[in-house]
Transferase 2, rSAM/selenodomain-associated (Halomonas saccharevitans), 230 residues
Amino acid sequence: MPARPRLSIIVPTLNEAAIIEAQLTRLAPRRASGAELLVVDGGSRDATLARARPLASRVIESAPGRARQMNAGAREARGQALLFLHADTVLPPGAEAAIAAALVEGRDWGRFDVRLAGRHPLLPVIAFAMNQRSRCTGIATGDQGLFMTREAFAGAGGFPDQPLMEDIEMSRRLKRLSRPACLREKVTTSGRRWEQGGAWRTILLMWRLRWRYWRGASPDDLARAYRHVR
């Protein structure tokens, strides 16, 4: 039986044909060095599956919904640690070593700092605010590359089956196990959400949705509001 990989990288996708090949090609050296690379598709209607299959360790088809997809990937993963990576998020050099060091030091989970790629002048400010808020609150977002031990994933009960704020709720659960390792190495993720929706408009929208979530609003209601505004 092959040795269990140290790290499983789980990439949820939905209609990502335009970028999935580039993402998996960037991850190929990590796969060659022993990481497991799982793509979990939630029902793409484009060429995502065909383009991902030659470049991934495995492609898994799942019920739609990012939380469901990430949970499906974790069930199939063989790695000692799990990294949940968005299709438009790029890992920094040495990411595997940084994750391993953080988990060996006694943290059960963690995330990277984030850099937002794009031309809008507010993107560096937004990224700085995201990193500082996360460091102060212990709450991470999926854009920051959440990682954890298999035991922490199981102890948290996996990602909650909800259509929005699943990363926020998962962070809450994981905080009961340990504070996160807040790595200063930066993943780079697309700033398209802020550029397409308008930077200030998107900031206000996300803060409004977060406030309503903290006040107990249903994730289904928040998801409908998010889709309507987008």
